[in-house]
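comment on this one:
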Amino acid sequence: MFNKLIKMQIKFFIIIPIYNVESYLPKCLDSISNQTYPHFEAILINDGSTDFSEKIAQEYANKDQRFILFSQENQGLSLARNRGLEAVKDKITNFDSTNKDKFYICFVDSDDYWEKDALEIFSQIVFSNTDKNIEIIMTDSIFKIQSQSKILIKHYFLKNEQILENTVAPTLLIEYLKDNLHSVPQFVFQAKFLFKSKTAFIPHIIHKDNPFCLEIILKTKAIYINSKPYYNYTFNDNSITKQQMSLSYIKKKIYSYYTIIKYYDEILAYYDSPIIQNHIKSQITLLLQSLIRFLQIIGYSKDLKISKANLLPYARFLNYRKRFCLHFPYVYGLPKRIKQYLKSKFQTGKI
């Protein structure tokens, strides 16, 4: 149990799934241990790492009691995050209800890192808006892309700093997010609100942040938009490109898109707002188009987890030409390829 002073403080639970990131993990965990705001617990979920990641995580847990390590067999990022949420839920269950609105949850990917004053800024936002009962803080991020031995830094700045409240929050935020990149680590969630919403990560899919973010946004009544970047993404674009070329990755993409499409279609009926409905429909259309592009490469192979019959109920979200491509994905983009072929032949004088 916290002493009286700490009870007055906002406490952050930081969920960090870990899988084979030994080269990045120390910088990530250092960025957390060195936070200028000290009231936090870092929930480390080792998801079956086969390198030295678990050993590194254990070293931090041994020297700093604010770091707690859980280990499990490899189950993927979604289930690792869900395990972290369960751990936080167990920890705050014993606190009386007057303190439960002072707990906030953050997610950090183990190859990324925070600016050292991130938690201090988040706590100030909550304390300076106690009358608003902030359920979500959304902050900007910095993307650091390792490309051909060079670091390319991109800022995705949010347009304004503001608070969206009550029933207008989801509708306005949908409009707001159309032109802004967002993912789970950009959000700070009030634990009481997050657990009441019963939102969890869909397992075994890519792009798991998309449905989680949309669902939580649609349920919030008070979200603070913070325009300053405190989260640093780091990834190697060359490794991503190689991964996208693999057949197994393409199949996982197709299954992931289908799973998210199915989820979006299920929640569509729960919202009357034309803005929300149109946003969900547009997301379904974009996902279907991306799915068809991958089907164009491998078709409806026998070892896919889905079939044409699974997809046809969603044909209503496509125009007639795209619906035809849903039936016959190999013809997707055929007119464009014919046009490019003829153009190249004319330019070379072979026609």
User: Anything to note?
Assistant: The longest strand covers residues 222-236. Residues 274-298 form the longest helix (25 residues). Residues 114 and 231 are 5 Å apart (CA to CA). The chain has a mean pLDDT of 85.
